[in-house]
Specification:
Number of strands: 7
CATH architecture of the largest domain: Beta Barrel
Shape: elongated
CATH class of the largest domain: Mainly Beta
Structural class: alpha+beta
CATH topology of the largest domain: OB fold (Dihydrolipoamide Acetyltransferase, E2P)
Radius of gyration: 34 Å
Distance between the termini: 70 Å
Number of domains: 2
Strand content: 15-25%
Order of helices and strands: HHHEHEEEEEEH
Length: 209
């Protein structure tokens, strides 16, 4: 084997896509088709394998080059297809939990705020208001204290309710709130409200991590 053939074999080995460490870079479909067409042209225009006995070394080099080029083309097409599948899947839609703000007469039945009562509430979260519509307040959740894992929480108004205010809590876009709920209804009476240091401390005590 000549020095030139050794160099050719070394180069082909370095770009061999079948090696465990080789990761073919994705190419556009047009580029992959061009590589495959060029490979077929080399094969069709090459010497007659059955009759060319005068230069076996050259014939062997041509066959090795053709095989390597075909492998690169196949690996490139596969990489492009896989990359396309990943792009098509896209990010999943955020999960949403719907709660009710309850009726406007909640204040008449309020119980005094106590961390022990807060601890018994099955749903508790912290989130920032991103949208306020005529019938709901939407929050992006940044922390779940208890009872859920949704990305978004929608606080819906009850039939006949005209305001999203909760026991004096006036929801505002961009403001962070702490929300506690029982049986799908947001608890007012100081158990839910703007995320002040005092209310955050009460939630941390009621729902220790």
């Amino acid at each position: 084997m000549t020095g030139r053939q050794d160099q050719l074999r070394a180069r082909l080995s370095a770009i061999d896509p079948m090696r465990p460490t080789a990761v073919p870079a994705p190419l556009p479909h047009g580029r992959a088709d061009h590589i495959l067409a060029k490979t077929m042209a080399i094969i069709e225009s090459g010497p007659d394998i059955a009759s060319d006995n005068r230069h076996p070394g050259r014939l062997r080099s041509i066959l090795i080059a053709c095989a390597a080029a075909g492998a690169v083309a196949a690996a490139t097409v596969t990489a492009v297809i896989l990359a396309g599948d990943d792009a098509d899947s896209g990010p999943s839609a955020p999960s949403t939990l719907s709660l009710s703000l309850g009726s406007g007469d909640t204040m008449s039945s309020c119980i005094p705020f106590d961390v022990e009562f807060l601890r018994d509430m099955p749903v508790a979260l912290a989130g920032t208001v991103t949208e306020i519509s005529a019938d709901a307040v939407t929050l992006d959740v940044d922390r779940w204290y208890a009872g859920g894992d949704a990305d978004v929480v929608s606080l819906g108004l009850s039939p006949g309710q005209t305001s999203s205010a909760l026991d004096g809590v006036d929801f505002q876009r961009g403001v962070r709130y702490l929300i506690a709920s029982t049986n799908g209804v947001v608890n007012g009476c100081g158990f839910s409200g703007e995320a002040t240091p005092e209310l955050e401390a009460a939630y941390a005590e009621a729902f220790p991590t």
